Structures are given as C-alpha cells and as structure tokens.
Structure to design on (989 residues):
C-alpha cells in the first residue's frame, strides 16, 4: 500500500458530498439513542413550526365574538380563545421569540461559562481564586426575583438585551462546572505528554481539552436553553416584559380571563402550557443524543 | 555549580521537591543525585510513595525542583532564579515521558494518525502532511504496530492496552528524544504482552541510542530491562542504594534492598520456597509528615544500632566501583571511608 | 447426593454470558472444578479471560447483564449439597458469608468511607448471622488480632485512616467472621507494595494451614500463584486449559499457553534469562476463533486445532489435566524447566 492511499480523506473538492455524508452520519449517531432522537424530531418540529409554519398559518388579529371559547373544529384544531381568536395560530406565531431567545441565551451563557471556566482552571492562581469567589457570591443571589426587579428598571423589549441579561445572571453555575471539568482533564496524562512535547497552550486548550468536553458543553448548552425559557415565560407571564405574541402572554391572558373558572377555556390555557412543556422535554431528550454524538468512544470513523 | 559533569547525558544533583504548605508541608524527594550516561538504562525502584515518580517528573522538567539541579547534556535546565534555562527547548524535546496508564495517556478524541502527526507538524520535523504520514508509518513500524493501516485511523479506545502503550512510545519518538523516562510503563499491561513491549523498548536503545530512566516497583521487570544498566533503590524520598543491576539483584548491601529482594515472590515454586526471609522490626511505612530521626529505615531495620542509626542520617557513599549505599552498617562492613 | 466432606465446593460445566452492545460475551465457557479443604487453588490468566466472572459467579454476585446459562454450583456441608443456582435472594445473602466469603481486589472500595470499621463489621454480621453484639465484638477483636492488626486501634478507625495492606487484612478478618468454609480472593495482593504483599501472602498461608478452609484465589501474577497455590488452573478465553499441582504447572506445563506465560515472566534472583512473549492478543469473546481458542497465538498449532476445540483430559496423573492436542510436543520444550526442578529438588536432598 502506498502512502498516498493511506492519506486521511481531507480533500474539500467534493464538499456537497461531504456535507451530505456529514448530515447522514449526524442523523445516524442521533438515532442511536431512541429517546434522544425523538427529542431531536420534536425539536425540529418546533423549529419548523415557528419559522416555516408562520407562512402557512395566518396570524389572526381580529376578535370573533361568535367563536369565544369555541371547541376544536377542523378549521380551528385547538379551539378558540376568550376573544374568539384561533389558538393554533397563536401557538405557531408565539413560539418564535421563545426559541430565538432560548438559543441566543444558550449560546451566550455557554460562551461565557466555557471561556471563563477553562481560563480559570488553566491559568489558576489569583485569577482563579478571584473568579471562584465571585461565582460563589453570585450563586447566592436569588436569580428570578432579581430578574423581576431588573425588568421593572430596564425596558427589556429587545430580545438581545434579555438574552444577555439572562446569560450574565446564569454564568456562575456553568462557570463552576466547566472549571471543575477542565481541572480534571488538565490532570490527565495526555495533557502532560502534550506539555512534554511542547505543543503550546493554544494547542492544549483547543485540541486536547475542549474536544473532550464537547458533550459536556452541549449538555450545558441545552440546560442554558431550558432555564432561559422558564425565566422568559415567567417574566412575560408576570407582565414584566412587553412582548405581545408569546406563549407566556397566552398563559397570562388565559389566567387573567379566568381560566381557572371556566372549563371551556381549557384549550386556551393548556395549549401554551403543553407547547412549553413539550419543547422543554424535546431539549432535555435531545441532550441525551448530543451526549453520545460528542463521545469519542462512539466515533468509530 | 552551573555545569554538569561531562560524563552524563542527564544528571540529577541534590534534587529536593516539597509539596503542600506550612504544617502540611512534606518533602517527597529529599536530596536525590544520580546521573545517566548516553545509551544507558537506570532503573528507579521503590514502593509507592517513595518519590520515584516525582523524581521522574523533575527529570522530565514537568515539575520544577524545590532545590537542586537537573543537567541535560552538561547544561543546567533551570537558571539559578528558577526560570527556564537558555537551552530549555532542546531539553524539553530531548527528554520525553511514557506514562503508566495506557487508558489515560492518549487523548480519546484523536485518531492515532492525529496523535502522532501533531508534534511532527507543530515542530516542523516534516514539511507537509504527506511527509508526516510517511514518518507516522515509519514510527508505527518501529514500535511494532503493523500492518499500519490497521492502526492509523483508529481511536485509542479501539486498541488494547499494550497497543496503546506502543502508540505512547511512538508519540514520544516523534520529537527524536535522547532520553525517555518510562514511569511504570509496563505495569498495567498483561503478562503475555509485557515482554514484547519491553523488548521493543530495548530495541530503541540499541537502534536509536535512546537513554532510559525506567521507573518501576517490579524488581523482576527492572532486572530484565536494566540487566546491563544500574538500579537505584529509593526509600521515603531518598536513594538508599545504587549499583549495577547484577550486583544489586544478587548481592544487595542495604538492608532495605535485602528485605525487598527477599520478600518478592518468584514465579518458580521451588525458588520462592527456598528464599531466606528478612525479618523487619516493623511493617509500618513512615509517614512523610512524621519522619523518623537519623536513618529513615531505622525503625524497621534488622541491623539497627541504637545511638548511631537513630541519630545520624547516613549519606549515599561509594563502596566500590560504581556502587553506592546509604547505610552506616553496610558501609562499614564494605570498608567505605566514613 | 453424597460427597466427601473434604470437598466443600464443586462446579460442573458452568457457562456465563453477558450481553453488550456488540453481542453476547461468552465469559465463562464450560468450567468444572472442585475445591478441597485446606488447599488453595490459583486461577491464573490475563485480564478478560473470565477469571473474575467465574469467581463472582460462584457466589452469584454477577452484574445485571450477566447470567449463568448452564451448569451447576454445589456447596457441600455435612454431606449435604446446597444448589447455589436455585437459592432465593434471601437464602443467597445468608449463604454468601457463612458458606463462602469473597474478598475483592480493591480493598478501599469495599468499605463504606463514612462508617467506622466496627460499624461495618456489625452490619455484616447482623445481615448474616445470629450473633449478639458483644459476641460479634469479641470475635472481631480476636480476628483482627489474628490478622496481625492492633484491634483497639483499627476497630474504631475509618477506612481512609488505614493503609492498603491494613485494609486488606481487615477485609480478611471480616470474611472470617462467620466461619465460611470457602474463601474466594480476587487479586489479593495486586495493588500492594512488595513488603505489604509479603505480609498478606504469609498471612494467607497461615490462614489456610490453621483454619483449613478451601481457598480459591484469582490472580494474573504467576509469582503469587507459585508462592501460595497447591493447585493451579490456567484460564484462557473463558475455559480452564490446564489444571494441576503447582509443581507440575510450573515445571512440566503441558499447555502452550501456560508454557508461554512461564516463559514471559522473569524471576528476580539469579542470572539474566531471555524472555519470550506470546505473539498476538487474547481473543474477542464476542466472536472467538473456531477450534482451540489459543490457536491463533500458538506455536504448536496444527490443522486439528483450527477446527476442533480440545477438552480437558488428564495427563501425567489423575490430578493434572490439560486441553491440548499437542501435549507431547509441548512437553519436549519444557526439558529445561524440568532440569531446573531437578536441580532444586536435588539441592533439597543434599
């Protein structure tokens, strides 16, 4: 066998084929864990519903007094609300904010946690001691009440602000777990071997430490998303964030319109609650598959 | 004191390493000196906690000595202020380490090709990936992993313990080291595989002139690998005896070496039954936090002389050609100058 | 059912399998053996040969995924047999320490770190026997003294306050608490330092001679086997390939694998000997090779070995059996070992 034949296949010439193959392998790995794959499918469903779905389901703005609390029909599969508006349409259009913000918060909080956590563990010394102490103090602050108070002071109508705020508030937990993880990886023999081979700090962080934390980071990311959703829905429900189309707003409306008194309003309150719960569940389930995907032991090339 | 002796490729001089702070401060390695000549094998033998691994890490430069010096090719590795010396880079690549645990010493995220090609490309030993592949194939053949196509794109978890240790050796060889510190490199590998691994490592010495510091707790392995070299026996942070392997194995002088050799079970029923035991006065290994006065072995030593051994700490003294022992009684009997 | 009372344990044609993602691992394949009172049997072999699985199968402490698919395990007491495989969970727990105690490899993990030694001893005895607290205390003190520990110091200590060798001795003392007639030791000296290992070996030998129970110890270390065993069983790929008195195994091995192991292990004292490694690696137990499981690594391989699996057959004597078609040829290559034996035996005579 010639050297040529043993070269790793890294040619970029056939990139469409490579991308397709990559997607195929991703799906195959995802489907190894049945629960995880189910979560992934539900997640994809929600993503499609709140993006492509909005093109097919028209947004209803007009009230219809003839259809107040009307039960489900073929035309309105989830029934109608207290103003006679179609609930399905509100679910489809009210999810986009939540999804976007959840993703954004997940990304930002993971970025903060991973970079501060790994720097802290790798640099050590005073830097590490300071950040750790800060994180410890931070963790004692009750987050949601603080958020509620902040929301009354700052106008949180911009989603990016909200995502940033949520991320900053939740950095400490993730920082601590990432720091512990890096500490444990740092002690491993292959890191010492890389030091002896003089491969440099950057190589050690990006090539030796991070790849072994990917599954961990992916899971942290999903947890960041779920807690962001609860926080946001909570704020919206309390009316502290002036967003209009939103599952949280729906719950708030259903609640204030007296959902606990009228059994007809069951669809109105249960639809957003179910949507939120199902979406959360899909994320939690999906994290199981993500864990496997990033586990190198299952990557048998 | 800034130049090492020209005799040795790598030399430890009065190495001391402490760990912890204040009241918890312990001296894991206490005044260890030895040298290894080009192409020689020196074995560090001792029980767990005797400081042999810490010594190995200081020789590799992964741990800075609290005091004392390491010389590589005659030059001090650390400056008097404790910074990296001017030739640190040469030294860094010149001395490589093989770890004990084959399951922890390779990054599980990388293929064998990646593990081996990274140092080659990083230090520009090769110009491009084609040359890197050539060299990786050559290295895999040197460490006996053939046919290479069965290993190149495997992940570490797909290999057996023995095969992983071979990859570790190949990884060390990527930077053409002159010294390899093998820290219990074969102790976690199965018996039937172990000899093959040891023979392969011995071939590196013959063919590439690699010099070894071989750290082990297993006297049988030490004898087999370092028969033409020397063995240093460590006890609670210090070398107690240093001699050529045949001398140390068959005619130990220090009571601790004698006790170890007498206690080792042999893979030969008649031989092991016929061994003479050395009765120790105590089974307790002293804690580093409460070291005995005088000779650290005296509470257990069958030769213990009150008023001498518990008062004065014996130095490692020459007692003949290339032979050193740190024991008042053994040195006296061998007629060493005191 | 009747059996001599000197044989407390017999195993007949035992098979253990467990399920992993890739398929079924045949960890123990048709093992038969018996233990004799006052005698120790060493089970030697490399990691993954099924020796530990066999050990835990004897007290039915297998992991969830594993099951015994065939065979019989019988413990004998007063000429009555207990069929272990049919015991219910409660009977099994009683049986485990009273008939057969097992001491595991990692002496640290065997203890609960937050309980003092005394509490752990009490828990064990309460779960299994009808002794009163003061009886247990008295017995425990005796046993701790017997294993050369200072009972007063040890009994109120936490596990982490004891050294590895001390913990191993506490475990031994605990295993003797309920007077078992069989003791199974999994790698009893592996993680210990040389001098500590020596005290454990000497202690085990004394226990065997003075208390007279049957001992099965599992080890990858030939030296420990040479030192402690009366009989040795070599295990390869889930089967016993050779079984015989310790001197026969070390000086007249008849199986190529046993011979290979002996040739691969250096002795400490004496002159330098060249060593030979066994080529290749142990087989995959999910998909083992056909015929003799050792044939891909065996220098004596013939066509027959590739298709037919040899069964254990007695060789020199009733007590020595081997599973190999080429015993004669293997024997010719052990002349140097036999000479070595003759030399020692001669030395003893003079």
């Amino acid at each position: 066998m010639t050297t040529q034949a043993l070269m790793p296949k890294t040619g970029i010439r056939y990139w469409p084929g490579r991308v397709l193959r990559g997607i195929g392998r991703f799906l195959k790995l995802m489907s190894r864990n049945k629960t995880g794959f189910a979560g992934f499918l539900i997640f994809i469903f929600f993503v499609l519903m709140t993006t492509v779905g909005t093109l097919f389901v028209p947004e209803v703005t007009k009230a219809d007094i003839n259809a107040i609390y009307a039960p489900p029909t073929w035309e309105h599969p989830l029934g109608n609300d207290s103003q006679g508006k179609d609930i399905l349409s509100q679910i489809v259009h009210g999810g986009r904010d939540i999804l976007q913000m959840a993703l954004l918060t997940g990304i930002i909080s993971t970025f903060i946690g991973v970079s501060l956590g790994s720097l802290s563990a790798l640099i050590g010394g005073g830097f590490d001691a300071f950040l750790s102490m800060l994180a410890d103090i931070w963790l004692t602050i009750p987050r949601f009440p603080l958020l509620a108070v902040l929301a009354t002071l700052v106008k949180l109508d911009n989603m990016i602000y909200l995502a940033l705020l949520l991320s900053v508030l939740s950095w400490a937990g993730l920082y601590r777990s990432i720091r512990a993880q890096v500490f444990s990886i740092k002690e491993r023999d292959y890191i010492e071997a890389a030091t002896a081979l003089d491969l440099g700090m950057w190589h050690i962080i990006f090539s030796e430490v991070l790849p072994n934390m990917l599954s961990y980071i992916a899971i942290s990311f999903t947890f960041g998303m779920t807690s962001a959703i609860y926080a946001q829905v909570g704020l919206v429900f309390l009316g502290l964030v002036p967003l209009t189309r939103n599952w949280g707003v729906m719950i708030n409306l259903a609640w204030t319109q007296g959902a606990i008194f009228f059994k007809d309003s069951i669809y109105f309150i249960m639809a957003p609650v179910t949507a939120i719960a199902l979406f959360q569940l899909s994320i939690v389930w999906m994290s199981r598959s993500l864990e496997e995907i990033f586990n190198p032991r299952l990557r048998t090339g | 004191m800034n130049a090492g002796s020209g005799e040795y490729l790598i030399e430890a001089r009065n190495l001391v390493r402490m760990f912890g702070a204040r009241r918890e401060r312990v001296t894991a390695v206490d005044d260890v000196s030895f040298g290894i000549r080009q192409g020689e094998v020196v074995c560090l033998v001792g029980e767990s906690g005797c400081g042999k691994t810490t010594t190995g890490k200081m020789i590799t430069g992964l741990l800075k000595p609290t005091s004392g010096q390491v010389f590589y090719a005659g030059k001090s590795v650390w400056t008097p202020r404790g910074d990296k010396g001017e030739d640190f880079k040469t030294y860094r690549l010149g001395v490589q380490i093989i770890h004990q645990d084959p399951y922890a010493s390779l990054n599980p995220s990388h293929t064998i090709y990646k593990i081996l090609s990274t140092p080659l490309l990083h230090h520009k030993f090769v110009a491009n990936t084609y040359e890197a592949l050539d060299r990786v194939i050559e290295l895999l053949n040197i460490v006996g992993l053939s046919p290479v196509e069965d290993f190149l794109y495997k992940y570490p978890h797909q290999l057996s313990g023995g095969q992983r240790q071979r990859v570790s050796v190949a990884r060390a060889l990527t930077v053409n080291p002159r010294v390899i510190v093998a820290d219990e490199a074969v102790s976690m590998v199965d018996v039937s595989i172990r000899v093959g691994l040891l023979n392969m490592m011995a071939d590196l010495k013959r063919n590439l002139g690699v010099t070894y510091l071989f750290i082990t707790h297993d006297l049988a392995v030490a004898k087999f690998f370092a028969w033409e070299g020397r063995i240093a026996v460590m006890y609670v942070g210090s070398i107690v005896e240093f001699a050529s392997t045949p001398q140390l194995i068959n005619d130990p002088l220090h009571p601790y070496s004698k006790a170890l050799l007498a206690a080792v079970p042999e893979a030969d029923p008649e031989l092991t039954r016929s061994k003479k035991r050395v009765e120790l006065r105590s089974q307790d290994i002293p804690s580093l936090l409460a070291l005995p006065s005088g000779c650290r072995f005296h509470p257990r030593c069958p030769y213990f002389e009150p008023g001498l051994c518990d008062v004065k700490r014996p130095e490692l003294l020459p007692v003949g050609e290339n032979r050193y022992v740190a024991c008042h009684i053994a040195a006296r009997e061998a007629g060493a100058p005191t | 059912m009747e059996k001599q009372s000197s044989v407390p344990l017999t195993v007949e044609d035992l098979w253990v399998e467990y399920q992993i993602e890739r398929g079924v691992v045949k960890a123990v394949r048709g093992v038969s053996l018996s233990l004799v009172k006052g005698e120790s049997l060493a089970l030697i072999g490399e990691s993954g040969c099924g020796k530990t699985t066999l050990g835990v199968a004897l007290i039915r402490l297998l992991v969830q995924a594993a099951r015994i698919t065939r065979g019989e395990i019988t413990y004998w007491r007063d000429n009555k047999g207990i069929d272990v495989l049919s015991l219910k969970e409660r009977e099994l727990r009683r049986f485990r320490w009273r008939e057969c105690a097992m001491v595991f490899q990692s002496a640290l993990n065997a203890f609960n770190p937050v309980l003092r030694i005394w509490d752990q001893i009490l828990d064990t005895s309460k779960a299994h026997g009808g002794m009163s607290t003061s009886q247990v205390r008295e017995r425990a003190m005796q046993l701790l003294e017997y294993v050369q520990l200072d009972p007063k110091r040890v009994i109120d200590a936490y596990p982490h306050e004891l050294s590895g060798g001390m913990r191993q001795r506490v475990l031994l003392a605990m295993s003797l608490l309920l007077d078992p007639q069989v003791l199974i030791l999994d790698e009893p000296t592996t993680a210990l330092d040389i001098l500590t290992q020596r005290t454990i070996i000497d202690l085990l030998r004394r226990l065997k001679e003075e208390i007279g129970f049957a001992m099965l110890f599992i080890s990858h270390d030939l030296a420990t086997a040479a030192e402690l065993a009366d009989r040795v069983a070599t295990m390869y790929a889930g089967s016993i390939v050779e079984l015989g008195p310790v001197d026969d195994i070390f000086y007249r091995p008849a199986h190529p694998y046993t011979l290979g192991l002996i040739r691969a292990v250096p002795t400490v004292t004496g002159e330098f000997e060249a060593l030979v490694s066994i080529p290749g690696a142990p087989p995959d137990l999910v998909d083992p090779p056909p015929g003799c499981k050792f044939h891909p690594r065996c220098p004596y391989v013939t066509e027959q070995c590739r298709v037919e699996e040899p069964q254990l057959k007695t060789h020199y004597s009733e007590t020595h059996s081997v599973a190999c078609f080429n015993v004669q040829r293997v024997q010719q290559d052990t002349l140097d070992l036999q000479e070595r034996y003759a030399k020692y035996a001669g030395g003893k005579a003079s």
Q: What stands out?
A: Chain A touches chain B at residues 1, 3-4, 6-8, 10, 188-190, 192-200, 203, 207-208, 211-212, 296-297, 299-301 (CB under 8 Å).
